[in-house]
Known about the structure:
Distance between the termini: 49 Å
CATH superfamily: Ribonuclease H-like superfamily/Ribonuclease H
Number of strands: 5
CATH topology: Nucleotidyltransferase, domain 5
Number of domains: 1
CATH class: Alpha Beta
Order of helices and strands: HEEHEHHEEHHHH
Largest sheet: 5 strands, mixed
Helix content: 40-55%
Strand content: 15-25%
Radius of gyration: 17 Å
Amino acid sequence: MWQFEHEAKARGYKIIAGVDEAGRGPLAGPVVSAAVILPHNFSCEGIDDSKKLTEKKRAALFPLIKEQAICVATGISSHDEIDQINILQASLLSMKRAVKNLLNPPDFLLIDGKFTIDMNIDQAALIKGDSKSISIAAASIIAKVTRDAMMKQLDKTYPQYNFIQHKGYPTKAHKKAILEHGPCPVHRRTFKGVKEVINAG
């Protein structure tokens, strides 16, 4: 899991940040990114791609990463921005915001996925980076836990959609709730499963 961090260090980079996002697929809520800079002596058992971990495991790792990391920051792109600029651009924008929010400016970025972000920092995009790089894996956990907490808050405002259960993802129950109640203000109006309901109305 340290291969890409070590390679960047060998090329002379000093401060390497892993960057990942959570929430590209849901029908509601924001996309949330995290950027994490880990110390070379970081040791935290069980760090992996957040999607492979249980909610309980992610919740346990979240404070450990925050405690031990040199720096952690998040960036958000709202459901409105997603509708305006599309989910890919919103995801990249939230990643850029996360990097800008780091108190220690990095000199190299490891980014999950196949796209780099529009910043004047050397960077590498890694497909399935969250299972190849410790920094990206840590960022994936921070992003996922942060976004889940936001969806739990939104559940209190819009209980009829049961966001606490599916976090806005397009489950059968969620789609049924959209059909029954119509979309709420935080639904992504350009997404399949929401736009048809709006157009039908």
